[in-house]
Amino acid sequence: MTGEPALPEGEAKVRAVRSMFDAIAPRYDLVNRILTFRMDLRWRRRTVESLRLPAGSLVIDLAAGTGDLCNELQERGHRPIGVDLSWGMLAHARTSAALVQADALRLPLTTGAAAGATCGFALRNLADLDAFFTELARVVRPGGRVALLEVAQPDNHLLRWGHSIYFERLVPRIGGLLSDAEAYRYLPRSVAYLPPDEALLATLAGAGFAQVDRRLLSGGIAQLITGTRR
Question: pTM of the prediction?
Answer without folding.
Answer: 0.96
